Amino acid sequence: MTKNKILIVDDEPNVCQFLAEYLDYKGFETVICYSGIDALKYLKTEPFDAVLLDLIMPEMNGIEVLEQLKQMNIFVPVIIVTGVRDKKVAEDAMSLGAVDFIPKPIDLDRLEQSLIVNIKNLQ
Predict the structure, then answer these.
(1) Which stretches within the chain are classed as H helix?
(2) Contact indicator for 61, 100 with CB cutoff of 8 Å
(3) Which residues is 29 bridged to in the sheet?
(4) Residue 112, SS3?
(5) Could you report the per-residue pLDDT of 85-119, keeping only the tens digit for each?
(6) Which listed site, 23, 49, 87, 122, has its alpha carbon 20 to 30 Å from 115?
(7) Is the CB of residue 19 less than 8 Å from the CB of residue 8?
(8) What is the pLDDT of residue 2?
(9) Shortest CA distance to 10 belongs to which of 109, 118, 114, 102?
(10) Rounded to the nearest 10 degrees, how much is the dihedral formed by the CA atoms of 28, 91, 56, 112?
């Protein structure tokens, strides 16, 4: 059975490592990016089953990444994982194609369920 491949995009290495270890344990394959710019490079060349995307990052924030994905016609489930708790920001992210908005600290059960549901909906 092939593992679902998840791109983790966050400028905080400890968050990336924590998520990667958890998702690897749960049977997912993970790739880590520390910037939106690097994430877009990966997404142009490699298929992913889902993306976990932080909003607040230097150079290019999560909203800008979503806008770029839309312009490039790259359709992948994007789950926003962020410390931002602003309803307007969540609505903006969802209107740009994000499939879920999970605040930090991350509820790991909710994250896993969101991945399972959104990857299944894509297939």
Answers:
(1) 13-25, 36-45, 62-71, 87-95, 108-122
(2) no
(3) 5
(4) helix
(5) 899 999 999 999 999 999 999 999 999 999 999 99
(6) 87
(7) yes
(8) 80
(9) 102
(10) -20
Strands across the sheet containing 5-9:
29-33, 5-9, 50-53, 78-82, 98-103
**Closest C-alpha among 94, 49, 90 to residue 70:** 94
User: Could you tell me the two tokens for 100?
Assistant: 């879920």
Determine the residue type at 47: P
**Token pair 């991350």: residue:** 106
Q: Count other Cβ atoms within 10 Å, centred on residue 78.
A: 29
- 56: tokens are 């607040």
Angle at alpha carbon of residue 39, lines to 37 and 41, rounded to 5° = 75
Strand partners, 77: none
Assessment of whether the complete model's pTM goes beyond 0.90: yes
Task: Return the C-alpha torsion angle 95, 81, 72, 40, nearest 10.
Answer: 160
